[in-house]
Amino acid sequence: MFVFSKKLEGYREEIENFMRGYLESLDIGDDLKETISYAVFSGGKRFRPAIILHIGASLQVPRNKLLWPAAGVEFIHSYSLVHDDLPALDNDAERRGKPTLHVKFGEDMAVLAGDALALLAPQIVLESHFLTEKEKVRIALELTRRGGAEGIVEGQIADIRPKERTKEWVEYVFSKKTAPLFEFCMWVCGYLAGKFEAELLRFGKLLGLAFQARDDLLDAAEGKVDTTGISVVDVLGKDETERLINNWDKEANKIAERIEKAGMERLSRDLMEVFNFAVHRNV
Predict the structure, then answer these.
(1) What is the DSSP letter of 87?
(2) Phi, psi of 15, rounded to the nearest 5 degrees
(3) What are the backbone dihedrals phi and psi of residue 99, each rounded to the nearest 5 degrees, phi first?
(4) Residue ranges of domains in the chain, CATH in brackets
(5) How far apart, in whole angstroms, are the C-alpha atoms of residue 252 and residue 90?
(6) 279, 12 in Cβ contact below 8 A?
(7) β-pair partners for 95
(8) 180-236 pLDDT, tens per residue?
(9) Of these four, 118, 125, 169, 246, which has the most CB atoms within 10 Å of its CB?
(10) Nearest Cα to 61, choosing from 145, 144, 185?
């Protein structure tokens, strides 16, 4: 865990510099640029793009190929937060200690900025100077699939309109709401390296499931109540939630062990560093 956590700030600076340069190059008005910039640069660890840079490096994928999908996944994540905060959904007034976008700029600009960010995600991939045409199309497809109707949009609907309060439904919500972007982050590294695509895709899903369960546990410990969605702690209780996380942890370790036996010790180690950083955290 030490290596990944030590590198995280460097990854954050690298991806933010890349995104700033890209946003400055866009032919858009000052109002939209200011609103988008506020959404993107209002804090956050940049955990998702950092995964791409970290695991991609383990697989020796050139950095100039990794930065484009890394920025794309962060644009998707940013749009999802902007829309989640809207009055029609979570109706949050603050995020990371700052006014949410609709509070600061108005609901109209928040909706439009979120729309813009969602579409900038595949756009930045398709405009890459370093990815091949085949790579651009495949990566943009997978990114939009996970950021759209088949991924986090369906997950948000399943969260705010649960059909049942069961372990199976919670896992379905997590598999759509949180896991898809983690799946993408892991998969894209395997795709660009030409190895371990299936293993990394599954590892990403396990990471997403456990990450969201830990989030719910941390919220419960702080006394936060989810009034608009479904919490695994409310459904199953703290002990059963910890058991779920432990089961996902064991499966993730088995995947890492298989990769190590295939001669990829560094990749195996880096995968578990990321998993442990995300799942066994206190904040």
Answers:
(1) T
(2) -70, -35
(3) -60, 140
(4) 2-279 (1.10.600.10)
(5) 31
(6) no
(7) 98
(8) 999 999 999 999 999 999 999 999 999 999 999 999 999 999 888 776 778 999 999
(9) 125
(10) 185
